[in-house]
Write a structure and sequence with these properties.
Strand content: 25-35%
Shape: elongated
CATH class of the largest domain: Alpha Beta
Distance between the termini: 70 Å
Number of strands: 20
Largest sheet: 7 strands, mixed
Length: 312
């Protein structure tokens, strides 16, 4: 088939890092997070050296401009998967440098428009987010369907970051709506279920499962100590409401309990330990890596996992 490039492109710096013309027609879009609030020019410089051994078809800079680094007809080197890159248009998006790697709104809005443009030029009326690796990779898209995939399915990476991952259902719905298509009749869903629990492993504590993220957040806010988890068990939102029964005293019986900068193992360690003793907890939250949740120390030193504490 013939291939075209997006008219949204305002900057082009073609990278030598690609495999030539695709061996599969385009039926996937794979958005990535750059891990940097950079410009399209910076992205072009990143992918220009052959030694980089990496590239993407398009990039969206921090100001919402679109750059092109590998023509759409060619396979970029972006997703750690030959089979995925052969059939996917890959898009690097400017993002924060720390988890959850959030995008500025102008970047997200441009991503929606660019996905609409890609779908239209490739004869697609629907963009699908199936929310599961095995389900997606085994799914054979219909002639008018485009499917979203993510880098983390093919490599030990967090890309595209939890911020965008939590919005892929929203992205698919907005793009499909602008294409005039419908998600009905596909036998799939474009939106994942967001579950509200104390921790991912504590399924009995679940308060509900929601298709709309904002509704899940409202439920978490109404239940102190609860968080919102995506289909893969990633904590994408923790209630800002302080848990009940604080302040409280807890006893730590191990010498090497890490103190972290936030409520979860996705926050950096402070480099300090509590040691054995009794400590005052002034706030409790759910978070990654702890079944019982996390407690903020009154001393201000940081957060500790309550899995290793006994309430006094």
């Amino acid at each position: 088939m013939g291939y075209a490039n997006s008219s949204m492109v305002t900057y082009t710096k073609l990278s030598p890092n690609h495999s030539g013309q695709r061996t599969h027609s385009i039926d996937r879009i794979t958005p990535h997070c750059v891990v940097g609030q950079c410009s399209v020019e910076t992205l072009g410089n990143i992918f220009l050296p052959a030694s980089k051994q990496a590239s993407c078809n398009y990039g969206i800079g921090v100001d919402g401009r679109v750059g092109m680094y590998v023509e759409e007809k060619n396979r970029s080197w972006c997703s750690s998967s030959n089979s995925n890159d052969q059939r996917a248009v890959t898009i690097e998006c400017a993002s924060d440098t720390k988890s959850p790697y959030a995008f500025k709104d102008v970047v997200y809005q441009t991503l929606i428009k660019l996905c609409v443009d890609i779908c239209k030029r490739n004869g697609k009326k629907k963009l699908l987010w199936l929310g599961d690796k095995d389900k997606t990779l085994s799914y054979a898209p219909k002639s008018d369907e485009m499917v979203l995939t993510v880098h983390r399915w093919f490599a030990n990476k967090s890309c595209p970051g939890d911020w965008l991952y939590a919005r892929l259902g929203d992205l698919a719905e907005k793009v499909t709506a602008q294409l005039g298509g419908s998600s009905s009749g596909t036998g799939t869903t474009t939106s994942p279920m967001y579950r509200v629990r104390k921790s991912w492993s504590d399924s009995k504590s679940q308060k509900g499962a929601y298709k709309i993220l904002s509704n899940a957040k409202k439920c978490a806010d109404a239940n102190p100590g609860y968080s919102v988890f995506d289909v893969n068990g990633v904590n994408i939102y923790t209630s800002k409401t302080t848990a009940t029964e604080v302040p409280s005293l807890v006893k730590v019986s191990i010498t090497d309990l890490n103190i972290r900068k936030g409520p979860g193992t996705d926050y950096a360690k402070t480099g300090k330990f509590t040691g054995k003793g009794v400590f005052t907890i002034v706030e409790m939250k759910s978070g990654k890596g702890s079944t019982a949740g996390w407690g903020r120390l009154k001393s201000g030193a940081g957060w500790i996992s309550l899995d290793y504490c006994k309430k006094i």
